[in-house]
Specification:
alpha/beta; four-stranded antiparallel sheet; 25 helices; 44% helix
């Protein structure tokens, strides 16, 4: 009898000597698990296995295992055969799991870009090391666990609902954001810092008590942000950072420290001589550089940190009745100086290191055809002209707060509570589910029998989409309402999951009073709007048909949000950034045979098309204004105004005034920054050759969606999209 020399393992790439004893031992274990001795007849048949393959140099291991199963099913007791089959399946699952993880490891090792080697590409993960690998490798399992918890809660709340529908929706017309994050997390948050002034971070698991001076404030603030961020998927905003920092600075240097900023801080115990102003900049540096460090609890990416600066009317509304724990009031004069100084410092610091965070939002009130705080308005326009990169938020009243790369949340009139410090700072989003409008519209077309791919085309010369497309409008609205009804169920179930975690004392940020869960929103995201409009024959530019289409979609969603609102559930709508989701939805639709545009590789996260050369900067501002968005996008939208170079102060003043006039609430100006990879020279414009060392090894930085980062760190899909963006040469 010839003995089989080798057996193919797994994918066939590994060969090993055939060992009959391994088979016999595995069968014996199956017998032993059932408290039985192996039959001699079974042993005899097992010893015949090599003869089945005489003449063969190799044989697949699966073939041999199948032969063992057949022998046991024919000769062994049922429970033994079953035990072996279960063992084999378990072993195969373990081996397949390991093989998949090894494949991921190899893919990660061979990738120079982390964003291309993970299921949730994120350009904020710039490092390529073992720590990042170990945080990324478990994302698939996280997604499965999160989805299963969600399904079970849905079944519990809605017993008659087909919970399998959720998985179908999430794989077709919806996208649940950050499903692969750690288990059971809320999305993003803007916190009040009052509990920090009282108890430090003790109440959220830290050891530090309340900071006593400006030095401990800065150090402990960093710990605070890392601690809060570990319990959230997305951004952590601290609108009141400068309100707090100013309090400690005034304790240290007096109420009018900014007027004596050039005084030298002296001590007989040090030879170092520096001014108050220089020391403040070191505090800025300490906070920003510390928070730019990778966080283990955040998948080894920097914390998504946001902060705000306010004009005087905004400040008066937010902090006019605010008192610190010692009974003193917030002081506008010093806070205003501090926030402006920080904004200027950040711009200068980005000539040394292009800091991604914080994302800064400058909040302005515009009433009676003017900015009420003209001084701050002038200041931020000057900063824009000097190449500073931040967001501007314009409102006609302090009734909402922008605290993220585009999130805008309604706030209630502040009623300061001296006991717990609750303020209108406390807002954010508990969870985000984005609708793929392009796929939804095409599904409606297919289900109603209207011809594809272009249906409901606007007749030549017509100007009223609503009137000429009444039937289509009715069909879309009814279908959209039906889809939204499911979204509210999914969001309600997620909210209950968070409540369960809260009641189990696992969400300590809430328990400690930094945020009230009832003040956060459940967000309905929008993506694929451009493509949906194009599919039904509407051009995505400044025209009446597109305006009416946008208003129709947005108003329908907001109407349903209000209808489903309860005392503890609030819903809002935003144009979601969709760094990776926009690409995934596009590719998914293309693979499934849906129409997708050929001039882009993703669904844009704007009212306008960023690759449309015929849309001016003014058009982009108008398209994100009240005529197109109204007050419907109460969760926010962001106009990214891409320029090939910086404008002067007067030009920015005109653009801000125009944005205020047309109701464009949230926007930023993007000019790619450049960094020489050889000498480190940084400039705030795109260059091809370093003026300092003549090197052509240049890296470029831009806002991928909301945050400024190196383009080489973006996913392959986002890098392709960046090359198609239109950077306007004039306004």
């Amino acid at each position: 009898m010839k003995v089989i020399k080798r057996v193919k393992k797994g994918n066939g790439s590994q060969l090993e000597e055939f060992d009959l004893n391994k088979i016999i031992n595995a069968v014996k274990k199956a017998y032993s698990s059932q408290n039985k001795e192996i039959d001699e007849e079974v042993l005899k048949e097992l010893n015949y296995i090599p003869s089945y393959h005489e003449g063969a140099s190799t044989v697949d291991v699966e073939t041999i295992q199948n032969e063992v199963e057949k022998i046991l099913m024919d000769l062994a007791p049922y429970d033994v055969a079953r035990a072996y089959i279960v063992y084999r399946e378990k072993h195969n699952n373990i081996r397949n799991y390991a093989d998949n993880k090894i494949a991921f490891i190899n893919r990660y090792k061979n990738s120079s870009n982390t964003a291309n080697a993970t299921i949730d590409d994120n350009s904020n993960v710039s490092n390529h090391n073992i720590a990042v690998l170990n945080s990324e490798i478990h994302k698939e399992e996280n997604a499965e666990v999160n989805l299963r918890i969600w399904e079970l809660k849905l079944q519990e709340l809605y017993p008659n609902f087909n919970y399998k529908q959720m998985k179908k929706d999430f794989n077709t017309i919806m996208y649940p954001h950050d499903l692969s994050s750690q288990i059971g997390m809320p999305y993003c948050v803007a916190i009040t810092m009052y509990p920090f002034y009282l108890n430090g971070i003790k109440d959220i698991g830290g050891l530090s008590v309340a900071p006593k001076n400006i030095d401990s404030f800065c150090g402990m603030f960093v710990n605070l942000i890392f601690s809060v961020a570990s319990q959230y998927k997305g951004a952590v905003a601290t609108p009141g950072i400068f309100v707090g920092m100013d309090w400690y600075l005034r304790k240290e240097y007096g109420d009018y420290y900014y007027e004596k900023k050039d005084l030298i801080i002296s001590s007989e115990y040090t030879t170092r001589k520096q001014t108050i102003h220089k020391q403040i900049h070191q505090y800025f540096q300490q906070i920003c550089y510390s928070l730019m460090q990778p966080s283990g609890s955040r998948g080894n990416q920097a914390v998504f940190w946001n902060c705000s600066i306010f004009d005087k009317p905004f400040f008066d509304t937010m902090y006019g009745d605010f008192y610190y724990p010692d009974g003193s009031k917030a002081r506008w004069e010093s806070i205003n100086w501090l926030q402006k100084d920080f904004l200027h410092w950040l711009n200068q610091e980005r000539l040394k290191c292009i800091l991604t965070f914080p994302v800064v939002s400058a909040c302005l009130i515009y009433q009676d055809n003017k900015f009420l705080d003209n001084e701050l308005y002038e200041y931020i326009c000057e900063e824009y002209s000097q190449g500073n990169s931040f967001f501007t938020y314009i409102s006609d009243s302090a009734d909402s707060l922008s605290s993220c790369c585009r999130l805008s949340s309604k706030i209630e009139k502040p009623q300061f509570n001296f006991t717990n410090g609750q303020l209108s700072e406390m807002t954010g989003s508990k969870n985000v589910i984005t609708l793929n409008l392009n796929r939804i519209i095409q599904n409606i077309a297919n289900s109603t029998g209207i011809s594809s791919p272009k249906w409901g085309t606007i007749p030549e010369g017509t100007t009223d989409w609503n009137k000429n497309n009444l039937y289509i409008k009715t069909v879309i609205k009814n279908e959209l309402i039906e889809i939204l009804d499911r979204v509210y169920k999914y969001q309600t179930a997620y909210n209950e999951i968070l409540k369960d975690l809260y009641n189990a004392d696992l969400l300590t940020v809430y328990k400690a009073g930094f945020i009230d869960m009832k003040k956060q929103y459940l967000t309905i995201g929008i993506n694929g709007l451009n493509q949906a409009a194009e599919y039904i024959g509407i051009k995505c530019n400044k025209n009446k048909e597109y305006e009416e289409f946008c208003n129709f979609i947005f108003s329908t969603i907001k109407e349903q949000n209000q209808k489903h609102k309860t005392k503890e559930l609030m819903f809002n709508t935003e144009f979601t950034p969709c760094e990776s989701a926009a690409i995934k939805m596009y590719n998914r639709d293309k693979k499934d045979g849906y129409w997708v545009p050929s001039d882009t590789n993703l669904y844009a996260s704007y009212i306008y098309k960023p690759n449309d050369k015929n849309i001016s900067i003014l058009d982009k501002i108008y398209l994100h204004g009240r005529n197109f968005c109204g007050d419907y996008l109460d969760g926010g939208s962001s106009a990214h105004l891409n320029l090939d170079n910086h404008l002067n102060k007067e030009q920015y003043k005109k653009l801000l005034n125009y944005a205020a006039e047309v109701g464009c609430k949230y926007f930023t100006f993007n000019v790619p920054n450049s960094e020489c990879d050889d000498c480190g020279y940084i400039t705030k414009v795109p260059i091809s050759k370093c003026p300092k060392c003549n090197s052509t090894n240049i890296s470029y930085y831009d806002r991928v969606i909301g945050y400024l980062t190196k383009i080489n760190n973006w996913s392959e899909g986002r890098q392709i999209e960046q090359k198609t963006r239109v950077y306007s040469k004039n306004i």
